[in-house]
Design a protein that fits this description.
The protein is about 70% helix and about 0% strand.
């Protein structure tokens, strides 16, 4: 299962993890049936340590890719918001990102070096840098020249109506 967790393509790894989880559950049921049959006939019960190890690794992968999915879905959803919708939920966004940062830090040390875990940390850190800027840009004192400077850095043109502008447009160059 370590090849699933070390994938550079988290979406593909999440799909493979689901398949692996299904196969593991089938094997765990078979092991239980075998062990119950062995106990019924008073035979020595055979242990399968590889199954327990695989379950532990799948659980770790679930943790990493669960955080990855949550962070990706949240950020993607926020990028679709119009500027006028951002200010009322700014505090919720900050709370969510702090929660994701905490979940990322609480990952087992062994998994923190996996590409998906590093990508989660990068996404969270980058968005935590952007949030204070968004708070500042939402103030009444912001003038068109401030918007022009920010959008120039983002490689975007100045929108005619900033209230209808989606925040995802400033996050990357198109």
């Amino acid at each position: 299962s370590s090849d699933v967790c070390s994938s550079d393509l988290p979406d593909l790894a999440i799909e493979r993890l689901g398949t692996l989880r299904d196969k593991l559950e089938i094997r765990e049921r078979k092991v239980k049936l075998y062990q119950d049959g062995q106990a019924l006939f008073k035979l020595p019960v055979i242990e399968f340590p590889d199954i327990a190890l695989t379950r532990k690794e799948v659980t770790m992968c679930d943790g990493v890719f669960g955080v990855f999915t949550d962070v990706s879905n949240s950020i993607d959803g926020w990028k679709e918001l119009q500027w006028s919708q951002v200010l009322p939920i700014m505090e919720d966004m900050m709370t969510a990102m702090d929660g994701f940062a905490g979940r990322s830090k609480r990952m087992p040390k062994r998994v923190r070096d996996w590409p998906a875990a590093l990508q989660v940390k990068t996404m969270v850190d980058n968005f935590l840098v952007v949030l204070p800027m968004m708070q500042e840009l939402s103030k009444e004192s912001i003038r068109p020249r401030h918007w022009e400077a920010v959008l120039k850095l983002a490689g975007q043109t100045v929108p005619e109506n900033t209230e209808e502008w989606q925040i995802g447009r400033a996050s990357c160059r198109e």
